[in-house]
Design goal:
By secondary structure, this protein is mainly α. The protein is built from 10 helices and 3 strands; from the N terminus they run E-H-H-E-H-H-H-E-H-H-H-H-H. The longest helix is centred in the C-terminal third of the chain and has 35 residues.
Length: 312
């Protein structure tokens, strides 16, 4: 039932992480540093992979796109958040809110399946090494990268259309630091059943489907590793798979906490803390995880540093 005697909402107010004025400057500095580390890390990873011929393999091709998606979706949220930390009136336009909403869902779902593609790549490399060259051809890699983008943005468009069908005519204060599903639905003054059901179905099915593929891949990978007799084979397998598993754990763990709960004031408050992990912590850590745990990336970084040093 639509509530009466309310004006149509033309802008939203983002309440942010906290309303304590003394923390705003501190949080601005903290998140600015985190954002700069994330941007530098991911923007370093992409050209590093493109410039080093030894990193021109499917695994690093997928990693460069993971870095690009991470960079895009943290940039979708952070600039507005940083401005709001220093603003008295923390507003975002109605259109701006839904643009942010669309890109966030699209990029997060793209991230799900980019991590899934990377798990499949590791499965083929470790369990089917003799067929790796033919199975992971250039055309196959391009298709595996394009599919998450297309599917993610299609999902984002559908979810945005469903959200736009709701009526927002009452309070316009979003109890979050970005335009997210649960806090937006709390504000709707029309029936949210269809949108809420769609959110659970899409979030649950995509999380479950992508994570199931990753887990099944790692079951076969684990079985293959246990059959290896070479210590070098064990070390190499754990080096590449360990980085990916760490990234998957941080990302999926926080997303399950965020979306697989009914929207309420309590769940929104808890969701703010959880959202910090998958929006800021995961994209910041991914370049560190893949560089510190991977000898090929560390070698490429040393090569660039030495080249720059000699150029001086």
């Amino acid at each position: 039932m639509i509530k009466q005697n309310y004006t149509v909402v033309t802008e939203f107010i983002l309440l942010g992480l906290t309303d304590r004025a003394e923390l705003q400057t501190v949080l601005f500095v903290v998140f600015l540093v985190v954002y700069l580390i994330t941007v530098i890390g991911n923007m370093t990873m992409i050209p590093l992979i493109r410039s080093d011929s030894q990193l021109h393999t499917p695994m690093y091709f997928f990693l460069s796109h993971l870095a690009f998606v991470d960079l895009c979706y943290v940039t979708n949220v952070t600039p507005q958040m940083l401005v709001n930390f220093l603003s008295k009136r923390k507003t975002i336009s109605f259109i701006g809110c839904f643009i942010q909403f669309h890109f966030f869902i699209a990029l997060v779902i793209t991230d799900y399946y980019m991590l899934t593609v990377m798990a499949y790549d590791r499965y083929v490399a470790i369990c089917r090494p003799l067929l790796y060259g033919s199975k992971m051809s250039r055309c196959t890699c391009l298709a595996l990268v394009a599919a998450p983008y297309l599917y993610g943005f299609a999902n984002g468009l559908v979810q945005t259309i469903l959200m736009l069908r709701l009526t927002f005519c009452g309070p316009n204060e979003i109890n979050h630091f970005y335009c997210a599903d649960p806090p937006l639905m709390v504000l709707a003054c029309s029936d949210t059943y269809v949108k809420e059901t769609a959110m659970f179905v899409v979030a649950g099915s995509n999380l479950t489907c992508s994570l199931s593929i990753i887990l099944v891949s790692y079951v076969f990978i684990s079985a293959a590793i246990l059959r290896m007799r070479s210590a070098e084979g064990w070390r190499k397998a754990f080096s590449t798979c360990g980085s990916h598993l760490t990234a998957v754990t941080v990302f999926y763990g926080s997303l399950f906490c965020m979306y697989l709960r009914p929207p309420s004031e309590a769940s929104v408050e808890q969701g703010k803390v959880v959202a910090v992990f998958y929006i800021f912590v995961s994209p910041m850590l991914n370049p560190l995880i893949y560089s510190l745990r991977n000898k090929d990336v560390k070698r490429a970084i040393r090569k660039v540093i030495q080249k720059e040093w000699l150029a001086k």
